[in-house]
Known about the structure:
Layout: E1 4-15, E2 18-29, E3 33-37, H1 44-52, E4 59-64, E5 67-68, E6 79-82, H2 94-104, H3 109-122, H4 138-150, E7 156-160, H5 168-185, E8 188-193, H6 196-202, E9 205-210, E10 213-218, H7 220-225, H8 230-235, E11 240-248, E12 251-254, E13 257-260, E14 270-276, E15 282-284, E16 292-301, E17 306-312, E18 317-322, E19 331-335, E20 342-345, E21 351-359, E22 362-365, E23 368-371, E24 382-387, E25 393-395, E26 403-412, E27 417-423, E28 428-433, E29 442-446, E30 453-457
Helix pairs in contact: 2-3, 2-4, 3-4
Amino acid sequence: MAKKIIDIRGVSKSFGGKTVLKDINLFINQGEFLTLLGPSGCGKTTLLRMIAGFLQPDEGSILLDGKELGDTPPHLRPLNTVFQRYALFPHLDVYDNIAFGLKLKGVPEDEIEKRVRKVLKLVVMSDYEDRDVETLSGGQQQRIAIARAIVNQPKVLLLDEPLAALDLKMRKDMQIELKEMHRKLGITFIYVTHDQEEALTLSDTIVVMNEGRIQQIGTPIDIYNEPVNAFVADFIGESNILNGTMIRDRRVSFIGHDFDCVDEGFGENTPVDVVVRPEDIYFTTEAAKTQFTATVKSCIFKGVHYEMFVDTDTGNELMIQDYDPYPVGSTVQLYIDPDDIQVMKKERTTNALEATVSGEGSIELLGGTFECNTAGYTAGDKVRVEIPFDAVDLQDDCDAGELTGEIHFILYKGDHYHLTVKIDGGGALYVDTNDIWDKGDLVGVKIPKKKIRIVGAL
């Protein structure tokens, strides 16, 4: 049975009134290679720095071997950190860089030499002990940074995007070396990255994070094949993410067709999200196997496979990856196996928001004033309102709407885009649109009066 080495309980952290981590609960087993994965700003590095002791949580606790770390300073924790910027001492050679921490601890010189030579062999740098670190390549400097960390024999090695500064080939080579180091050392690795492929390659366990919360914890295979929501499906690898309806157990409808699947427990005629990976859509010439047809729009060679975009017979766009190319403009017959259809519960089906009635026929919502049917309510009443995704109208001119915001997240759903718009001053709106926007675009927000519906008092 795996032994728990780190236990993170209810950890939250804010900076300047902005919540960076919210109620993080996570345990890490001894000897595990665990990766914190997510986009920039999701809180993964903040969590790593709290484990290291460089930051303290506002709420919650972090335990190591069952003992709360509390105010234990970084240098007294049996942990070592490898940073993206290698932080080597330019005035010391390779040997002295690695030996630095051991000398501070007063380790005998013969023991220092034994340990340094051992780790130099482990990182394949045995002949470099006398070299000036500034003469080393980026990959070599990273090896020395790792050697300096592991020479102290930490219980846990923390790695904060350690390969980000390397070129692609060197990064892939170092991934293999890190995996082998982990196997040989047998200690716990906690690794931070925003690179999905890196996480899938290295990890025993992946923790997917977004906006300060854990979205999913699982093995690389679980995360890839069984994403729990649209964010995870979109962030991990290429995906076709589509609106669907769960007809009944093991039967789902999407892209205008009904399919057998293996999922159960969603109810009947329930809106769902459906994920199909591009490599799981198959071409066929057999009429009996054909589930739908499509027209090939593009076909690009990607080295290992061809990537094709097709328009289905019901007007949805799909990405397909296959070893064989199909000509642009050709009509193809396609099918999807039940095991390759992943059904997910929808996180939301409409914008559900809190508002305040500001007067007859108007409400205050997300810091703006909107016209709305307020019959039965008086000024000052707190109400819950619903707004359909497709009712929100985005404008290029920020001054053209009742609100202003920024495009924060874009999810393509086969025949439209589902956007998350962060509203200035706080809050968010979710928008379905056929218009093409870029992440970071500033927009004005308009919502027609008839599209805002008060559903009850708060």
